């Protein structure tokens, strides 16, 4: 095991392990599972928080609470072990498919980020940097003078007090702090980003992420080549149960027995599509075109709904050819649709987007994808909801949730309003919305296929 | 009439002594419509001295036996295209253009005339070129397309003799072709310039796209796919940007969609200046190529070694750095500069580029504040009711206070004054001025193109099949002088070649056309410096490797 700097363990400060190598610890089978479940609780709650669009401060608070509630061990000295063991168990659980890896990687990275931010002193932060072997030198005083104005300008632009000569800045190749670059949180000059001490989190997070990403691939190899077989009576059942219990279905396979034909699309779009998909569907019918993000979001959803590849091609062709002509459709767009079905390119199946993914997307000019509850202006959202048949009372409830950034809850309330029925599970996935809706409609309307 | 939108049917003037050639109508018709069948005859005009070259030196596709430019694969003589059945409205259009043509130039113009053919230059800026045709294109690939430059570029120094060269490098690059029968060929790869050249000349693609360098030869990807491990993956790709005028439709009033004109083109100039400066000064890149996309936008290729090796995440971070538009189709605001100050990059872009072009060019040329509908759009961007009411009051008054000044300028000054000073001072309204300017000028990138390594982008020096214009490089240092309506077209280039006959080698021919300038720029300002630093990098990384080996040996 490798907790950060052994002397920290005696302090009151929680250690921040980097999980560089698996611990040579004895673990009781029971703990193996319990620890993992506790950690999953943390990750899952973080994932919910992020999909609500919680801002960094709110997330920090959330994580602090979650750690306190789930990651403590009755014996304080065991805290670190629990932390490390649970992490490595979940690595096994989440190494097994690309989607599981992606989810785990982003949640563990987020967890690491907030834990790093919760470290109370610069010394602790520097210790983590040292642990990662980050080779950066602090900017010298002379150099600082030269860029002082720019650094001040950046600080103002992100709402922070201007730096002083005592503040430490690191000069780092811009590629190593992509998130600071993306959000214009650093001054960049001739390929170097000037990273303030309080932004160092970004550097270490990048390191953490790339280590973990590589480790997950290795774990996956080990899992498929040896562990699964060796442990088939002991750990394997636990590992396999753990992932499904928390992540829910990914809707990558169309529902069994459900095939949707093109002629039914308009009708089911009206009755059972969540607002995000309904909007894209209507836009497509109206403009005979959708930009890339929209094609992905709607295309994968339709795949999950049960539209077969040939029908999907026919459907998109019918619309796009009205705008760009059949030739251009075949040339420029058909590939993407086949790609969604895993017939081109990497040949892996693409999974329909979850609400979390849609909500955190960033539609730009000309884009219609995203989650309307998050990305529409209030006026547009109201208009769209009333077109769906949401009444005034329910509308106010929905808008109230939107204002508090509970987008999925707003969507759930919308679901309930248009179906006059409850939805206890809440909406987590557009395809779940669709399936739940169909279930209700079928039970209400006993004559199947009646239209 | 807007000069750019004026359409003049320009007859294709052809040399004498050739098989019958067709004249084509204005490209606005969807199909090429032969107007008149002209049987060239020597008696039509006096041979000028320059024209007295031997017949075989002519540039037009000639009968196979006379073909001069590719003895291996003789071109067929241009067949007489069968007259397509035309809908009656098309006929009307043809008639109309013919009439105009006759009025302007007299019927004699329809004949082939030496003088006429030699001095079509003034007209070219105004005319929309003839729709492109695959015989011309074959010609272009045969005589003008700079294969060896493209090969040198895409080899990044790996085509040399240096022991550090990776001889497989060029062969792992994906090319893709769109053929005229709408067949789309992906994952083409070539091992040499000659192979690239002969494939392109044989297939005569309407469009050539360039993809990434993969881990293995993309043409053999299936063989590797069998082996289980996912080894077929992009490993290098230029950092690319695609800026398309059709993304600016909400801020230009002169044209929309695929059309561009000199009134809206400054938006592209802004994009080039802003992005180019940031790529160099902020990100430290040096080898940057800007290219006209042939119709309505520009492409940018950042070719530094570091840029080629960026991960998707790093590419996305650069694209996001440039992104100011957070709005989408369904939200109100397109630009929101909520922070108390602008990031140095945005501040520099604003003062050095955006503000100037907005106030000096776009404000006037787009008549941004001229009508009620338009100024309401701007007032919508200012959330302070008292300000908007005041401005609206002023602007609704019929009478103009000053006749001498442009109404847009007057109103803009009023708006600025109110927001930046006077009684509303301290409300923080200043930034709305900036937001408006950003909304109307700041570059809008197609983010997807830049974010992923495996996006394809049209190769420079392709010919756009709709406009016939060559995708020529644009010098960012003088991009304000670039005129998309004056970019050489395929037919113009062929005419230029015709005028001088053929001297022989390609370089010579190139030089005599208006493409020569573009190629010279490409070589001297882009390719040579690029190859120089490729060589240096190769040298130093090779030496480092040697050093490393030495060290490990001496252990
Ligand atoms: S909450 Fe989910 S299902 Fe509902 S509109 Fe948003 S993304 Fe779609
Ligand atoms: Zn225009």
UniProtKB/TrEMBL annotation, chain A:
GO CC terms: alpha DNA polymerase:primase complex
A matching Pfam family: DNA_primase_lrg
Entry keyword annotation includes Repeat: no
Cofactor or coenzyme needed: [4Fe-4S] cluster
An example molecular function term from Gene Ontology annotations: 4 iron, 4 sulfur cluster binding
Family: Belongs to the eukaryotic-type primase large subunit family.
Domain DNA primase large subunit C-terminal span(s) in chain numbering: 266-434
Protein keywords: 4Fe-4S, DNA replication, DNA-binding, Iron, Iron-sulfur, Metal-binding, Primosome
Protein name per its UniProtKB record: Probable DNA primase large subunit
Residues holding [4Fe-4S] cluster: 276, 355, 371, 411
Listed GO biological process terms: DNA replication initiation; DNA replication, synthesis of primer
Domain of life assignment: Eukaryota
TrEMBL record, chain B:
Single GO biological process annotation from the record: DNA replication, synthesis of primer
Key word Metal-binding present: yes
GO cellular component: alpha DNA polymerase:primase complex
Organism listed in the record: Punica granatum
Cofactor(s) of this protein: Mn(2+); Mg(2+)
UniProt-recorded name of the protein: DNA primase
Family: Belongs to the eukaryotic-type primase small subunit family.
Keyword Nucleotidyltransferase attached: yes
Molecular-function GO terms, alphabetical: DNA-directed RNA polymerase activity; metal ion binding
InterPro entries: DNA_primase_S, DNA_primase_ssu_euk/arc
Enzyme Commission no: 2.7.7.-
Gene3D superfamilies: DNA primase, PRIM domain
Alphabetical UniProt keywords: DNA replication, DNA-directed RNA polymerase, Metal-binding, Nucleotidyltransferase, Primosome, Transcription, Transferase, Zinc
């Amino acid at each position: 095991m490798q907790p950060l700097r052994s002397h920290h363990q005696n302090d009151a400060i929680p250690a921040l392990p980097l999980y560089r190598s698996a611990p040579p610890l004895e673990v009781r089978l029971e703990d193996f599972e319990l620890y993992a479940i506790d950690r999953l609780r943390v990750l899952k709650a973080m994932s919910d928080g992020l999909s609500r669009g919680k801002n960094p401060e709110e997330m920090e608070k959330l994580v602090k609470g979650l750690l306190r509630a789930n990651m403590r061990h009755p014996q304080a000295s065991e805290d670190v072990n629990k932390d490390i063991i649970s992490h490595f168990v979940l690595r096994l659980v989440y190494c097994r498919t690309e989607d599981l890896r992606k989810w785990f990687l982003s949640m563990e990275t987020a967890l690491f980020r907030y834990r790093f931010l919760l470290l109370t002193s610069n010394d602790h932060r520097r210790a983590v940097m040292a642990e990662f072997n980050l080779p950066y030198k602090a900017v010298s005083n002379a150099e600082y003078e030269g860029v002082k104005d720019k650094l001040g300008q950046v600080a103002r632009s992100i709402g922070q007090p201007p730096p002083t000569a005592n503040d430490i800045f690191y000069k780092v190749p811009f590629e190593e702090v992509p998130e600071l670059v993306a959000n214009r949180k650093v001054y960049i000059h001739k390929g170097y980003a000037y990273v303030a001490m309080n932004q160092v989190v970004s550097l270490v997070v990048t390191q953490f992420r790339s280590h973990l990403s590589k480790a997950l691939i290795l774990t996956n190899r080990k899992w498929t080549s040896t562990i699964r077989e060796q442990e088939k009576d002991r750990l394997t059942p636990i590992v396999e149960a753990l992932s499904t219990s928390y992540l829910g279905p990914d809707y990558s396979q169309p529902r069994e027995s459900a095939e949707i034909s093109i002629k039914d699309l308009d009708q089911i779009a009206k009755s059972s599509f969540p607002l995000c998909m309904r909007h894209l569907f209507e836009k497509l019918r109206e403009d005979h075109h959708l930009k890339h993000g929209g094609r992905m979001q709607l295309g994968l959803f339709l795949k999950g709904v049960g539209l077969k590849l040939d029908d999907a091609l026919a459907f998109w062709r019918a619309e796009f050819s009205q705008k760009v002509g059949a030739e251009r459709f075949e040339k420029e767009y058909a590939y993407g649709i086949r790609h969604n079905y895993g017939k081109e390119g990497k040949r892996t199946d693409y999974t329909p987007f979850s609400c979390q993914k849609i909500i955190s997307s960033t539609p730009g000019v000309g884009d219609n994808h995203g989650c309307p509850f998050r990305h529409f202006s209030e006026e547009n959202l109201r208009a769209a909801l009333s077109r769906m048949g949401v009444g005034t009372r329910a509308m106010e409830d929905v808008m109230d949730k939107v204002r508090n950034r509970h987008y999925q809850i707003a969507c759930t309330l919308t679901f309930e309003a248009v179906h006059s029925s409850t939805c206890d599970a809440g909406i987590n996935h557009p395809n779940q919305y669709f399936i739940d809706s169909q279930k209700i409609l079928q039970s209400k309307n006993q004559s199947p296929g009646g239209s | 009439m807007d000069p750019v939108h004026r359409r003049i049917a320009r007859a294709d003037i052809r040399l004498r002594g050739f098989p019958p050639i067709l004249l084509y109508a204005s490209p606005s018709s969807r199909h090429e419509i032969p107007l008149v069948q002209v049987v060239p005859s020597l008696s039509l005009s006096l041979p000028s001295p320059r024209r007295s070259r031997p017949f075989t030196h002519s540039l037009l596709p000639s009968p196979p036996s006379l073909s001069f430019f590719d003895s291996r694969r003789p071109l067929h003589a241009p067949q007489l295209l069968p007259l397509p059945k035309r809908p009656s409205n098309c006929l009307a259009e043809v008639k109309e253009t013919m009439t105009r043509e006759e009025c302007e130039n007299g019927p004699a113009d329809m004949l082939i005339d030496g003088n006429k053919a030699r001095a079509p230059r003034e007209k070219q800026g105004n005319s929309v070129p003839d729709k492109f045709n695959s015989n011309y294109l074959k010609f272009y690939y045969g005589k003008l397309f700079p294969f060896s430059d493209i090969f040198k570029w895409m080899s990044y120094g790996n085509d040399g003799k240096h022991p550090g060269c990776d001889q497989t490098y060029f062969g792992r690059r994906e090319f893709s072709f769109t053929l005229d029968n709408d067949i789309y060929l992906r994952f083409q790869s070539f091992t040499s310039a000659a192979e690239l050249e002969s494939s392109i000349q044989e297939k005569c693609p309407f469009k050539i796209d360039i993809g990434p360098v993969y881990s293995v030869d993309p043409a053999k990807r299936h063989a590797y796919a069998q082996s289980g491990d996912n080894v077929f993956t992009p490993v290098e790709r230029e950092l690319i940007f695609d800026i398309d005028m059709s993304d600016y439709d909400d801020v230009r009033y002169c044209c929309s969609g695929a059309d561009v004109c000199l009134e809206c083109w400054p938006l592209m100039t802004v994009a080039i200046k802003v992005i180019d400066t940031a790529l160099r000064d902020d990100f430290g890149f040096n080898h940057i190529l800007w290219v006209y996309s042939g119709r309505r936008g520009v492409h940018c290729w950042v070719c530094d070694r570091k840029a080629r090796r960026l991960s998707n995440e790093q590419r996305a971070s650069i694209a996001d750095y440039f992104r100011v538009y957070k709005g989408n189709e369904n939200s109100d605001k397109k630009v929101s500069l909520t922070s108390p100050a602008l990031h140095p990059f945005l501040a520099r872009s604003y003062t050095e580029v955006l503000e100037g072009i907005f106030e000096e060019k776009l404000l006037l040329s787009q008549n941004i504040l001229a009508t009620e509908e338009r100024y309401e759009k701007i007032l919508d961007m200012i959330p302070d009711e008292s300000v908007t009411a005041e401005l609206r009051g002023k602007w609704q008054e019929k009478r103009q206070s000053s006749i001498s000044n442009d109404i847009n300028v007057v109103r803009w000054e009023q708006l600025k004054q109110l927001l930046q000073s006077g009684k509303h001072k301290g409300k923080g309204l200043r930034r709305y001025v900036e937001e408006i300017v950003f909304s109307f000028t700041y570059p809008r990138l197609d983010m997807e193109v830049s974010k992923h390594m495996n996006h394809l982008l049209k190769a420079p020096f392709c010919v756009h099949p709709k406009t016939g214009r060559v995708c020529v490089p644009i010098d960012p240092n003088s991009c304000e002088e670039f005129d998309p309506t004056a970019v050489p077209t395929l037919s113009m280039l062929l005419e230029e070649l015709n005028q001088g006959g053929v001297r022989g080698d390609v370089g010579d021919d190139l030089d005599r056309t208006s493409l020569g300038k573009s190629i010279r720029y490409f070589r001297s300002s882009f390719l040579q410096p690029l190859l120089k630093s490729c060589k240096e990098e190769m040298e130093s990384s090779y030496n480092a490797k040697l050093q490393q080996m030495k060290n490990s040996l001496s252990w």
